[in-house]
Every structure is written in structure tokens, then in C-alpha cells.
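Hi all, posting the design record for the shared folder.

TITLE: backbone redesign
STEP: 1 of 1
STRUCTURE INPUT:
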């Protein structure tokens, strides 16, 4: 049996550390506040937003919820974000994605002040990440690094292969692994002979968005496999981008779905909120 990388446990550890930090900050008169904006009532988004509010309440962070109707205009949303940028009481601003089609999500992300960009999606945050400067890091990839470190898995010098090059997972993931001195390869839908490339990986991070895509023939014996994917099957059960049952006997460590990367995203969002307040 491989080492099971327990994201639920590690996320709980991080949240408890933050809870302690937030209580100390409160004693110093520093209160932390996160504004969460949701446009429309997409059920999946509502679940994510609720989980974020619950995590804030657990840690001692105030959350301000803005639940806007589907027909909210771009201008109205921009103006709310600008108002929150200027509100000294608000430390972090999160706009839940996806937004309705009539709203330009990139423009909204660019409107968020880089000092309050707790999702780490603003081009300034991404630029800072690329040049190794201080800044907010996208929560899911930051969570993957914590999973590896807190499970005692070294990254320096390792062959790291990332499947996927999205702006929110694949690209920042690759930069973070590079920052940890991994030797990094990014793969995508145009990669020739994907199995040959992934078969080199000591650490394989999968963010492809296809249920159970990665089977044992993609994986080197003894590799560490991190599954970022999240899908619900017909029975409403969660599964990842990796075929866990097929791969598990070949690898040295693996994240389950659920209970792997998923819980880390919110933990790292909370981490970013605390950092925002300490700036
Ligand atoms: P995405 O934007 O759809 O990106 C998928 C990436 O996979 C793209 O770069 C695409 O390449 C690549 N790809 C698609 N088919 C491929 C193939 N046959 N071979 C090689 N590469 C292929 O997805 P995402 O937003 O990064 O999310 C990826 C997964 O992570 C999803 O399952 C999502 O639900 C999950 N996710 C989980 C969390 C969490 O908190 N756990 C957070 C975010 C996302 P091209 O660029 O060439 O199209």
C-alpha cells in the first residue's frame, strides 16, 4: 500500500495553526475580514462559497457575503470591487468563479487590488510568483506544495511533471515546483507521447480535468502522484483525474479524491487572508 497523502488532516492542521495566529492578532487589535462575492446561484459555486464562509468562522475571520443576482452587470460588479478595494476594514476580496457569460472575468480579476487578491489570480500576483517576489499564490497549487512538504516528500532535484497548463492550476503549479528546485516539465493537450513524459516523473501532478484519465501506464514505479482533479460521477460520487485503484499499487505516495488536494484549497485561502491582514 502506498503512503496516502491525507489532505483532510493536513488542511485541518493548517487551519488550527491559523486559528491560533488569528486569535493572537485579535489580541493585538488586528481583525481580519474577507469579502466573498457570488454572482448568480450556481449550486456548485454556492457550496464552495459556503465552505469558505465556514472556514472563516472556524478560524476567526469575519466574512462579508455579497450574493448578487445573475443579471448583475459588469459595471455594477466592478464598482462593488472598487468599493471593497477602498474599504480599509476588508483585507481580502474573492470573486467566486465562474462568472456569468456576460461578465468579463479577467477584467474583474484585474480590478481587485493586488494587496487584497487572496485568490492569487491578479496578473501582478502571477508576475510576482514568476520572478520569486513576495505575493499571493493561487490556493490549489500552494496547497499541493504544502501536501508534499508536510508529508516529508522532497521536491529539490526531482523530476516533476505537471499535466495541465491552466492559469489557476497547471502554470502556477509548475512555477512553484520550480521555486522548490524541482526539474519541471509542463504537459498539455498538444504534448506528443504523454505517457513517455509522465513516465519520467518522480512527482506527477495531474490537473487535466478528465475523470480517471491517468492509469498505471502513465506512471513510473515508486512515483508520487498528486491528483488535482475533481469530478462527480452519475452516482454523485467524487473521483479525480487519476484512476486511483489502477495506480495505487505502483506508486510510493498518492492523494485520494476526495480528501486529498480538495481540502487544501480552502486552507490556503485562509492562509492568504491572514497574510493579507499582516501586510
Ligand atoms: P482546465 O482549465 O480545463 O485545464 C486542463 C488542462 O489539461 C489544459 O491545460 C489542457 O491542455 C490539458 N489537457 C486536456 N486534455 C489533455 C490531454 N488529453 N493530454 C494532455 N493534457 C490535456 O482545468 P483546470 O481548471 O486546470 O482544472 C483541472 C482539474 O482540477 C479539474 O478536474 C478541476 O475540477 C480540478 N480543480 C480542482 C481544484 C481543487 O480545489 N481541488 C481547484 C481547481 C481545479 P490545453 O491547455 O492544451 O487545452
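Okay, here is what came back for every position:
SEQUENCE:
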Amino acid at each position: 500500500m502506498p503512503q496516502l497523502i491525507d489532505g483532510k488532516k493536513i488542511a485541518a492542521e493548517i487551519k488550527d495553526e491559523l486559528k491560533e495566529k488569528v486569535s493572537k492578532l485579535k489580541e493585538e487589535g488586528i481583525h481580519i475580514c474577507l469579502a466573498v462575492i457570488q454572482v448568480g446561484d450556481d449550486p456548485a459555486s454556492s457550496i464552495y462559497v459556503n465552505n469558505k464562509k465556514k472556514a472563516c468562522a472556524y478560524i476567526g475571520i469575519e466574512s462579508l457575503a455579497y450574493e448578487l443576482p445573475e443579471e448583475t452587470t459588469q459595471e455594477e460588479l466592478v464598482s462593488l470591487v472598487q468599493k471593497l478595494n477602498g474599504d480599509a476594514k476588508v483585507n481580502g476580496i474573492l470573486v467566486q468563479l465562474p462568472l456569468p457569460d456576460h461578465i468579463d472575468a479577467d477584467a474583474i480579476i484585474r480590478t481587485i487590488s493586488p494587496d487584497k487578491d487572496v485568490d492569487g489570480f491578479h496578473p501582478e500576483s502571477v508576475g510576482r510568483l514568476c520572478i520569486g517576489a513576495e505575493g499571493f499564490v493561487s490556493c490549489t497549487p500552494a496547497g499541493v506544495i504544502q501536501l508534499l512538504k508536510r508529508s516529508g516528500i522532497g521536491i529539490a532535484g526531482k523530476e516533476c511533471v505537471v499535466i495541465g497548463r491552466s492559469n489557476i492550476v497547471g502554470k502556477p503549479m509548475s512555477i512553484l515546483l520550480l521555486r522548490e528546485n524541482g526539474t519541471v516539465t509542463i504537459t498539455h493537450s498538444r504534448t506528443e507521447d504523454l505517457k513517455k513524459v509522465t513516465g519520467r516523473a518522480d512527482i506527477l501532478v495531474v490537473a487535466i480535468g478528465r475523470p480517471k484519465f491517468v492509469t498505471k501506464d502513465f506512471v513510473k514505479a515508486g512515483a508520487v502522484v498528486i491528483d488535482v482533479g475533481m469530478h462527480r460521477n452519475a452516482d454523485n460520487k467524487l473521483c479525480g483525474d487519476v484512476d486511483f485503484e489502477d495506480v495505487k499499487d505502483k506508486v510510493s505516495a498518492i492523494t485520494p479524491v476526495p480528501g486529498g488536494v480538495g481540502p487544501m484549497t480552502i486552507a490556503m485561502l485562509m492562509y492568504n487572508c491572514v497574510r493579507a491582514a499582516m501586510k
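COMMENT: The two ends are 43 Å apart (CA to CA).
Let me know if anyone wants the other runs.
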